[in-house]
Request: fold
Amino acid sequence: EYIGVKLLAIAIPKMKALKKFDVSGNKLFAQNAKHLIKRFTNNNVLQELNLSDNNISHNEHTIAMCDAIRTMGALTYLNMSENQMLWKEVGKALGDLLKANSVLKTLDVSSNFDFSAGSLDFAGFASGIADGIKNNGALEKLLIGANGPYAHVIAAGKALGDAIAVNTVLK
Reply:
C-alpha cells in the first residue's frame, strides 16, 4: 500500500463538498484504489469519479470498489477505462452497480483489454454490464470500445444489443 493513498483516504471524509475526484494515471492498483473509494461509501455529493489508467484488475478489491460506488447517490460520471478489468466477475459487479444506481449518466469502461494478462472474457464482462443496463433508467452514455480482438467483441454484441433494446434511456 502507498502511504500517500492512506493519507488521502483519511482526508476524504473531511471533504464534504467534493464533487469531482480524479485519480487517473496513478497506477494505484485495485487494493489502493479500493481504500480510497470505500471512503466515499454512501456519499451523496460526489458527481464525477475518474479511476482510469490505474492498473485496476480482476480481483476482490475491484468488486469491493464497485460495491462502494453503488452507494454513491449523486454520481453521474464514472470513468474506469484503461485498466485490466475485462473479466466476468467485474462485469457482474458493474451490472449490479447499474441496477442499483438511478443517477449515473456516463460509464466509461473502454480500453480494459490487457494482452499480457490474457483478459479474454469480454463476453462475460459485457454480459454482466448488459444485465445492469436492462433496467437502468438513467444511463445515457456507455463507452465500452477498444476491449479486445474482433471475435470477442462479436460474442459480447448480442448481450449488449438485447439490453440496449429494452433500456428506455440508453439509445
Notes: The mean pLDDT is 89. The beta strands are 20-22, 48-50, 77-79, 106-108, 141-143.
